[in-house]
Amino acid sequence: PQQSDDDETSRRFALYTGRFIYDAGSMIRRSRALFNLARKPFVEMNDEDAKELEVSDGDEVVIRGSGSEAKLPVRITGIAKGAVFVPYDQEGLRANTLIEGVDPTVSVEKA
Hints:
The protein is α+β, with helices and mostly antiparallel strands.
């Protein structure tokens, strides 16, 4: 990850996003059983990047992009170093608000 111009404690990451089978769509809202299967928003991060930010699995980070921000728990995964993943349409966060135009980068810092 690159050092962010915003703050010496934050880093820039390439943001990847995608849908899950169960998200905050209209079908989920109509079914209590499906709603209970939907996950809360989170951010996946590489172990090396997490160590640089001094965060562990389950810790919260602040992710910022395009004038939006979210406080999310970290999940340490095998995602590529320098990249983060946020589910697209989870209850309480629309990940597309973190991306504007052709710049898919976000800053991440320890909460």
